[in-house]
Amino acid sequence: MSQENHSTIISASEIGEYVYCSRSFWLHREYPEFKETAPKKTFLDLFRARENRLEIGIRLHAKQAAQVKRQAQLRKVAYLLVLIISLFIIVTLGLYLVWKMRLLFLPF
Predict the structure, then answer these.
(1) Domain ranges within the chain, ordered by starting residue
(2) Interatomic CA distance for residues 40 and 53, integer angstroms
C-alpha cells in the first residue's frame, strides 16, 4: 500500500476527533508531530475537569435560582406599591370630590 493510499484511510477515532474539533483533526493530519507533543490527558484529569464543571454548574444554577427568587420578591413589592398608589389616588380623588360637593351645597 502506498503512502498516499494510507493517508486517505480514516479510522473511527479520527472521525470522532473530526466531529469533536475539525481544526484539531486537520492539525493532526497535516502535522503528525503535533499529535505527539499534545499533552495526554489521563482519566483523573478528565474526571477533575468534569468535577470542576459540575461545581461551576451547581454554583451558576444556585445563583440563577437566587436571582429568580429575588425577581419574584421585587415583582410582589411592585404590585403592592401599585396597589397602594392606586388606593391613594382613589382616596384623594374621593376626598376632593366630597370637598367640592360641600362647596356646592354651602349657602352663600
Answers:
(1) 1-38
(2) 20
Enumerate residues 6+ apart whose C-beta is below 8 A from 34: 27, 28
Has this prediction a pTM greater than 0.70? no
Nearest-angstrom CA–CA distance, 42 and 24: 19
**Contact status, residue 22 vs residue 10, Cβ threshold 8 Å:** no
pLDDT tens across 38-95, in order? 566 676 776 777 777 888 888 889 999 999 999 999 999 999 999 999 999 999 999 9
| Encoded amino acid at 91, one letter | V
Which residue in this structure is represented by grid cell 435560582?
A: 65
The alpha carbons of the chain give a radius of gyration, in whole angstroms, of 36
Are the CB atoms for 16 and 5 separated by under 8 Å?
Answer: no
Residues 6+ apart with CB under 8 A from 19: none
